[in-house]
């Protein structure tokens, strides 16, 4: 029962509310539940079929976002596609985003995406213990080439360390819970206080768009240097007058490549490693398939016929999905009735991906990582409402705009790393025995990733090691055309901004 004014807010657990919503849903035997955050009903969909019926089949209705204080009004609000209400401006942003990462372009990125993943394999030979940093560099570099025509060559590049830290912090702050700033969703009035007297706002809304100016500056720099006129910044710059884009809009469009596309992609690869350590039996068939189809003298490519490896990728997406509550909530643009329940216009509707992907009706023995479950003749196979077999990228009109890029990159990387290495649990230094990994040790963010763990990367043969070295060196040569550095740093951006005054107009001023 919701309490007056505060609703159910204070019944929320400290961590991982998605597990709590899954439990309520099971206890009540209800695929969809309503949970009151303050005076707002939030609808939690805990079942694949209900999610598909509501957010996919009725996509034209569930196409908007609800009012969000923390992720919306105090952040990038109506200048960012991710939190934007459905309407003409959203359509413009979606179209402009497709110009960068739409399916028609994604295949043409496979060359440098593949090369960056070859560099990861090479890096893993040299410094395997830094695998997380290698993944972060890879993911950030791919979107940086797309966005700015410039690769990121070292894991210590501040673009990676700062941007990923900001994204993880944003992810942690945005988990529904009983602490600030998310309590502002329960008490929106507290968001009106100025920041100097409102520590509960965690500085949100008071930064005058530091991140925005940073991405705007990166965009402007790429256009000015013009070393890769085919990059997204250039395309966007040319389109800007036609759509009357403000600086804040330009920066949100290029910034989303990092914001939405780097932490998500690298976290997915860390989950892949955890699965390999915890379920070594799943690697046997992958290695057999890769040896048979690819062999040791080249690494796999997108054209190889590798059904088990493809199922492996699906299972990575399902088993521990990074956007564990489906990213941002949807909201209906009109009152809707589903199964006799009224879902009023603008209601907060959230797909609980954790519950959906762990429902034992669709995924028996759900915590077990088992790529075979995607083959129809396997005992764990069960029907699913969509052909892909997962809902990792959301639903309907708000489905992830970078899905094609993320799927392509994850496929390339997972296939190559399975082909190249035996990925195993770390050995205890004193006993020499394998150290157990915890498949439930995940961060609490909206984009979750495994807590740090050690592992071993053992090249599968000497021939494979040589191939990795040869391909890695060649990849670095091919990628050299994207070498370069930016003069900007997010952390010092205010300082930098002063230096370039006159070049970067005020944040919300229109660019003409
Ligand atoms: C493994 C990687 C990724 C995952 C799991 C992921 C997941 C998601 C999810 C769950 C949503 C919300 C969907 C919904 O509301 O129904 C979303 C939205 C979005 N994603 Fe991704 N994403 C990934 C990578 C990327 C990449 C690489 C980009 C771009 C470079 C990107 C750009 C976006 C954008 C712009 C939106 C907002 C779409 C809108 O509201 O209309 N994502 N993503």
UniProtKB/TrEMBL annotation:
It comes from the Eukaryota. Heme binds at residue 400. PROSITE patterns: CYTOCHROME_P450. Its cofactor is heme. The keyword Transmembrane helix does not apply. Transmembrane segments: none annotated. One of its GO terms (molecular function) is heme binding. The keyword Heme applies. Keywords: Heme, Iron, Metal-binding, Monooxygenase, Oxidoreductase. It holds the Pfam family p450. Belongs to the cytochrome P450 family. This is Fumitremorgin C synthase. It comes from Cyphellophora attinorum. The lineage of its organism: Eukaryota, Fungi, Dikarya, Ascomycota, Pezizomycotina.
